[in-house]
Amino acid sequence: MDGCVEWVDIEHRKLVGVIDSLSWTFGNIVFSAIAYFVTDWRWLIVSVTSPLIVAIITWRFCVATAFYGISFNITGFGLNIYLTQFTYALIELPAKVSVYYLLDKIGRRSTEVGALLMAGVCLGINILIPRDMSTVRTVVAIIGKGFSSASFATIVLYSSELYPTVIRQNGMGYNSFMGRFGVAVAPLILLLDEVWKDLPQVFMCSAAVLGGLVARTLSETRNRCLPETIEDIEQQS
């Protein structure tokens, strides 16, 4: 993603960022259909990872990370898991299309902060909704997934614009590592429901709100040239 941003001008950076993020969304939509027909988890893993062989052969690698906290809780609402997964994926389309327009209208920072805070609000609301109202809780969770998706689509572009060219590759590599670390921790967070049923929701809500508050301290990169050196960052600050 960072290389793609360096190849295009300021006007088209947001388009490249959103299109890159949409590739994950379409894959997520297809995943629900594959899981419906391939019910054994072992064969499901084979089915969804086998296309990587083609990618390795053709040297086309597609890197995507996500916000697995909400996604992994797909069975926590008592509804059809295939329909829920499909809806979880589908909500990303309007979310990421909205990001395309918001990045220029209100800026990268405001979009990221707003999306994270709204995701936290949705998680907080679901803590208060009774568990027997599974449909309402699912709707709120889907809306939260949309905001979470918008925050991810934004941060892919935003973080690449924040790093100067001299450390952009290393910085994006660190971001990717932290994303993978979040993926590894997400299933463990869901196990906290054995301590208290709502503890996973509280943890994820707190993380989203904290992320939004931290993002508020970052500089805005809208309509700015990519910084080349650390000195450029210091001058902007």
From TrEMBL:
Keywords assigned by UniProt, alphabetized: Membrane, Transmembrane, Transmembrane helix
Record's bilayer topology term: Multi-pass membrane protein
Keyword tRNA processing: no
InterPro entries according to UniProt: MFS_trans_sf
Gene Ontology annotations for the cellular component aspect, listed alphabetically: membrane
Domain of life: Eukaryota
Signal peptide range: none
Positions in coiled-coil regions: none
Record's subcellular location: Membrane
Primary location: membrane
Transmembrane segments: 21-39, 51-70, 82-103, 115-133, 139-160
Stated name of the protein: Solute carrier family 22 member 7
Gene source species: Liparis tanakae
